[in-house]
Specification:
The complex is a heterodimer of chains A (about 400) and B (about 170). Chain A is built from eleven helices and twelve strands. Chain A is an alpha/beta fold. Chain B is about 50% helix and about 20% strand. In chain B, the strands form two sheets. Chain B has a three-stranded antiparallel beta sheet. The longest helix of chain B has about 30 residues. Chain B is globular. The relative contact order of chain B is 0.16. Classes of the chains: A alpha/beta (about 400), B alpha+beta (about 170). Chains A and B meet through helix 8 and helix 10 of A and helix 1, strand 4, strand 5, helix 2 and helix 6 of B.
Chain lengths: ~400, ~170
C-alpha cells in the first residue's frame, strides 16, 4: 500500500503546535530558564514573560491581567472553579447548577461535591444539546452559589446561549462559570458583555503546547485554591510556573485572535461541505448537535447499525484520525453521556463519529474523507446482523 | 511483542479488515445469538452440522454476523476459523484462551469480546441440540443458563434505563 499523508480530523482532542508558537517558546526552554519567583535576572526575565503573557491573554477576553490564573490543564481549571467556589461560598449556599452535557471533569467534580454535602442540579438539554435559559431560571434557588455551563460542547459542537445565561446569573446574584475550552480562540469572548465570572481555557486546543491552561476569576469572586504552597498565581495556584508553556499559550492566543474571523469563515465552509456530503452519501446517517449554533470546526454523526470504534480504526487504517462516543472506545464501556442526554438510544450512540477540523485542514482532505467514508460504513453494515429495512 | 497497529495487533487488524466466514447461513442447523446492542457488542453465529468419516458430528460450516468494535469482529472471525471442521465435542471443549492466543493478544478491556464469541458458539450448538430434541450435556446446559441470566440482567438494566430516559424527557 502506498504511504499516503495522514489526515488529522481530531482537532477537538488536541492540536499540533503552531511553528510560530514553538519559536516563541524556545528561548524559555533554553537560556531564559529562570524561576519566575526568583529575584535575580534569570527569574525576572521569566517573570516579565509571564506577566506579558497574562496581559495579552486578558486583553482578548476583556479581563484584567490579575484576573487570569494560569494552571496546568482545563481539568485543573474546571476543578478549581467548581470546588474552589463551592468551598469558599458554602456559608452562602450549597447548591450548584451544571448542564447534563458538561465535560467529564465538570461532571465528576460535581459528583464529588455531592459527596461533600453540596447539592447539584444537572439541567437537561434539548435534542440539539441546548440548555433552556427558562429552565435555568426555575432551577436557581436561594442557596444557589454557582452555575457552570460550557460555552460549546466538545463532542457535538453545540454552542450554548451563554450570554443569556450570564444575564440571568447576574440578575439573580449567582456566580457564572463557563468552560470555554472549545471556543477560546475560535469565537469572540467578552467576559463583561457576557457576564462571565469564571472561565476556563486551554492552550493545547488552540495550537499551543500541552501543560498550560487558565481560569479567569473575576475580581472579588471568592474562591479557595486546590494547591497550597508558595502562593503563586495570586495564591490560587501554588506551583513553580510553567513559563515556556504559558509563553506558548499567549502566542497561540495572539495568532488565533488575529486570524479568528478569516479562519471561522474558512472552517465553516469546509464543515458544511463535510456535513452535506456525509448526509447525502450515507443513508441512515444523522447529524448530531445544532445545525447552525455549532462550532465552526465540528461535525458529528451517527450511523445506524455500525459501531464507532470500528469506524475510527478503519479510518485510521486509511490514514484519517477521527473520534467516537461509542461505549466500546471508553474505559468504562459506557456510551457518551452527551449523546444519551440529547436523546440518542445507546445503540445509536455506539455508531457515532466526530470529525473536527483545524488550521491545517484542506478541502482535498475533506474530499478524500467523503470518498472513503461511505465504503467504510457499507462494509461494517455488511458484517452487522442488523440490517436497514428499505 | 507482536507488531501493533493502533491499540491492536496486526493479526487482529487483518481479521477486522478481511473477516473470514462472514455472513449468514440460510437454513442453519443452529444459531447462537449473544450480546446486547445496549452494551455495544452483538454476535450471531450460524452453524451447519455434518458428519466426518468416522461418523462423528462436525461443524461443517460456520458463519457470523457482528455489530461491535474491532475486537468483536476479529474474535468472531477467528473463532469461525478455529472451529470449522471440528467435532461438536471438540467445539464444546473449546478453550476460550485460544482466541486471544491466535490473535496475538487483546487489550485487557477487550477480553470480554473473546468470551462473547465462545458464548455464541455454545449457544449455536445448544440451539442445534434443542431443535434435534437431543440430550444437552451438563456443561452446555450450565453455559446456556449463565448466558440467559446475563441477558436478563442486561435487559432489566436496560429497561430501567429506558424508563429513566422517558422520565427525564417529560
Amino acid at each position: 500500500m502506498a504511504k499516503r499523508k495522514k489526515i488529522y480530523l481530531d482537532y477537538a482532542a488536541t492540536t499540533p503546535l503552531d511553528p510560530r508558537v514553538l519559536e516563541a517558546m524556545i528561548p524559555y526552554l533554553s537560556e531564559k530558564f529562570g524561576n519566575s519567583s526568583s529575584l535575580h535576572t534569570f527569574g525576572q526575565e521569566a517573570k516579565e514573560a509571564l506577566e506579558q503573557s497574562r496581559m495579552v491573554i486578558a486583553g482578548f477576553i476583556g479581563a484584567k491581567p490579575q484576573e487570569i490564573v494560569f494552571t496546568s490543564s482545563a481539568t485543573e481549571s474546571n476543578n478549581l472553579a467548581l470546588k474552589g467556589v463551592a468551598f469558599a461560598n458554602k456559608r452562602k449556599g450549597r447548591h450548584i447548577i451544571i448542564s447534563s452535557i458538561e465535560h467529564p471533569c465538570i461532571m465528576e467534580s460535581a459528583n464529588w461535591l455531592e459527596t461533600q454535602g453540596f447539592k447539584i442540579t444537572r439541567l437537561k438539554v434539548d435534542k440539539y444539546g441546548l440548555v433552556d435559559p427558562e429552565e435555568l431560571k426555575r432551577a436557581i434557588k436561594k442557596d444557589t452559589i454557582l452555575v457552570s455551563i460550557m460555552h460549546a460542547n466538545n463532542e457535538i459542537g453545540t454552542i450554548e446561549p451563554i450570554e443569556e445565561i450570564g444575564k440571568i446569573c447576574k440578575e439573580r446574584g449567582v456566580l457564572f462559570h463557563t468552560d470555554a475550552v472549545q471556543t477560546f480562540g475560535k469565537l469572540p469572548i467578552d467576559v463583561n458583555r457576557m457576564n462571565i465570572d469564571l472561565l476556563t481555557a486551554s492552550s493545547h486546543k488552540m495550537y499551543g503546547p500541552k501543560g498550560a491552561a487558565l481560569l479567569f476569576v473575576r475580581e472579588r469572586v471568592k474562591i479557595e485554591p486546590l494547591l497550597h504552597g508558595g502562593g503563586h498565581e495570586f495564591g490560587l495556584r501554588s506551583s513553580t510556573v510553567n513559563v515556556p508553556a504559558i509563553v506558548g499559550f499567549a502566542k497561540a492566543a495572539e495568532i488565533c485572535h488575529k486570524e479568528m474571523e478569516k479562519e471561522r469563515k474558512r472552517l465553516t465552509k469546509l464543515r458544511d461541505k463535510l456535513i452535506k456530503g456525509v448526509l447525502e452519501k450515507i443513508e441512515n446517517s444523522r447529524l448530531n448537535g445544532h445545525p447552525i449554533k455549532r462550532l465552526p470546526n465540528n461535525a458529528h454523526f451517527s450511523f445506524d447499525f455500525v459501531e464507532g470504534e470500528s469506524i475510527v480504526i478503519h479510518l485510521d487504517l486509511l490514514g484519517i484520525a477521527a473520534s467516537t462516543g461509542s461505549a466500546c472506545s471508553s474505559e468504562k464501556l459506557k456510551a457518551s453521556h452527551v449523546l444519551l442526554a440529547i436523546g440518542l438510544k445507546p445503540h445509536q450512540a455506539h455508531g457515532s463519529l466526530r470529525l473536527t477540523l483545524g488550521r491545517w485542514t484542506k478541502e482535498k482532505e475533506i474530499d478524500y474523507l467523503l470518498e472513503v467514508l461511505p465504503g467504510v460504513i457499507k462494509k461494517l453494515r455488511k458484517i452487522s446482523p442488523f440490517k436497514i429495512r428499505s | 511483542m507482536p507488531e501493533k497497529i493502533s491499540l491492536y495487533t496486526k493479526k487482529v487488524i487483518e481479521h477486522f479488515q478481511n473477516p473470514h466466514n462472514m455472513g449468514k447461513i440460510k437454513k442453519a442447523d443452529g444459531v447462537g445469538k449473544v450480546g446486547n446492542i445496549v452494551c455495544g457488542d452483538v454476535m450471531w453465529l450460524y452453524i451447519k452440522v455434518g458428519k466426518n468419516k468416522r461418523g462423528e458430528e462436525i461443524i461443517k460450516d460456520v458463519k457470523f454476523e457482528t455489530f461491535g468494535c474491532v475486537a468483536a469482529v476479529a474474535t468472531s472471525s477467528v473463532i469461525t476459523d478455529l472451529i470449522k471442521g471440528k467435532t461438536l465435542q471438540e467445539a464444546l471443549d473449546f478453550d476460550r484462551q485460544k482466541i486471544v492466543e491466535e490473535l496475538g493478544g487483546l487489550p485487557p478491556i477487550k477480553i470480554h469480546c473473546s468470551l462473547l464469541a465462545t458464548d455464541a458458539l455454545w449457544e449455536a450448538i445448544y440451539d442445534y441440540l434443542t431443535k434435534k430434541k437431543r440430550e444437552i450435556p451438563e456443561k452446555l446446559k450450565k453455559a446456556h443458563q449463565r448466558i440467559e441470566k446475563e441477558k436478563k440482567e442486561i435487559e432489566k438494566r436496560y429497561k430501567k434505563w429506558v424508563l429513566l430516559e422517558e422520565k427525564i424527557k417529560k
